[in-house]
Amino acid sequence: MNGAAPDRQTGLFSRLSGGMLLFMALLVATALALLLSWVVLSKVQQAENTRLRSVEADVLSALEEGGLSGLSQKLDALDAGFPGKPDPVLIAVWRLRGGQWSPHRAVPAIAADILAPVRKGGAGRITFAGRDYRVLAPDIATLSKRWAAPMSDVALAIASPDPGLEGRAARQTVIAVWFGLALAMMVGGMLHLNHVRRYRDGLLEINARLERVASGETGLRMPDDVPAPELRDLTERLNRVLPRFDDLVSGLRDLSATMAHEMKTPLQVIRSDLSRLSRAESQEARSRIAADMDRTIDVANARLHSIMQLFRLEAQVEIPMQAGIDLSGLTENAVDDLADLLESRDRTVKAEIARGIRIAGNRQLIDLMIGNLLSNAAKYAPAGAQIRIALTRQGARFRLSVSNTGYGFPEDVRNSAFERFSRARSAGDVPGTGIGLSLVKAIVARHGFSAAITPSDSIAEVVITGLAVVECDARNNRPEAQS
User: Fold this and answer.
1) Backbone phi, then psi, for 378, in 5-degree steps?
2) Considering only CA atoms, which of 301, 317, 216, 297 is closest in space to residue 259?
């Protein structure tokens, strides 16, 4: 279960568009900016409140310990520094005389007039010279009841800028953060829109070319200079696929043309045989004609099967592979199936097959490869020729040789024998489709083997080589030599 969660998470994000991911990132950034702003401003507000309360405590302590004279001395000490301070605290003290409140001491002197509206106790806010102030006005009459000398005739007010120096710096920081976030949003939005435009233009170009390919221009390729870098990998892959697609279309056309050409003769023969069958007068003649038609149909089916096998292999259709195929046994069986027929036609067969050679591959295709090699050798061998089959082991590899005496491959065939539908000019009336060796070549390529023709004027030899399977002794798990 631990491994399933990342897959779901990856799948979720993979379904989101770039715009949605950008929007989510901006939401997260905005939330973080809000949280940062609240934390910074709250901390600064708390610090400024603490500072104001600290000044209030110092003033009350001086008043309690030294009375008005002690407070005046403290205020005189503070007054020397107030005019030049960038963030001053206003303090005013009043005294009740003859039923009227009159200023006793203020720092600065104008503070008594500024703070007069809030001298009766409590807290409030004022604005002076374009700045806001928080004001604390403690009730001295009530507080001093616990003092050694109660003071019911004294009033006090203390004010500090709101925001103070730290608050203004914090607000500037928050403003800078939001300005930077807004700038990042604007730049990110512009980049995203530009990316969407380039991505859209690139996809439109790719789709337009794919439409042209679908309409028949199979030789067309994707542009190398797509505007969106993310699409370059796609165009490179398409440019690797399109040539294969072009080859498949060309191969399909060749296949269709070849099938039509190859089936033309059998159909004409069958039509002629049907005409002969309708005119035949005896049962024996009709049976003979029907047998000829049956053989013609078998030949046509074999041709179609070979052509379709070749097309499947060249189209890279997935084929099942097995390990430990007995190549020696398959070769012996193929030789036995062909030996009697060849000897009845004045051709001899000589086989030298090493036992125990195994390979990895597809059994049916390997069997078809051997059969095509033998039938091809038998088909073109002259009367009295000898067909030789040799299977040997050379280290970790095998060597399968199929040859016939009489003459070698003509020079016009030697370099093109493995190509599709290639036949020698000297083939004459020998029946065939010209795909025997090309089918062998396709099977060899799918198995990672190699095929070659021996250059000779007296022997027509095809050699197949490839990697053999090394079997292990089950008792000690060591490679066991194959003879």
Assistant:
1) -70, -35
2) 301
> Which residues of the chain fall below pLDDT 70?
1-19, 78-86, 120-121, 251, 254-255, 258-259, 261-262, 303, 306-307, 309-317, 341, 343-345, 412-436, 470-483
Is it true that the peptide bond before 479 is cis, omega within 30 degrees of 0? no
Closest to 26 measured CA to CA, from 232, 200, 191: 191
Cα 180 to its chain centre, rounded Å, is 34
pLDDT at 11: 52
Identify any residues that bridge with 352 across adjacent strands, giving them in sequence order: 390
CB 426 within 8 A of CB 417: no
Q: Cα–Cα distances in Å, from 29 out to 17, 71, 185, 446?
A: 18, 51, 10, 56
Question: Per-residue DSSP letters for 6-58?
Answer: HHHHHHHHHTS-HHHHHHHHHHHHHHHHHHHHHHHHHHHHHHHHHHHHHHHHH
For 291-370, strand residue ranges (E) read 322-326, 348-353, 358-361
pTM given for the model: 0.46
Pairing verdict, β 131-137 and 122-128: antiparallel
Per-residue pLDDT tens digits for 46-92:
888 888 888 888 888 888 888 888 888 888 776 654 444 567 788 88
Tell which residue, 147, 140, 101, has the closest CA to residue 122: 140
* Closest to 436 measured CA to CA, from 475, 409, 474: 409
- The secondary structure element, H or E, covering residue 104 is strand 100-107
Written as six digits, the tokens of 365 are: 């295709």
CA-to-CA distance for 242 and 220, rounded, in angstroms? 8
Residue 228 has what DSSP assignment? Answer: S
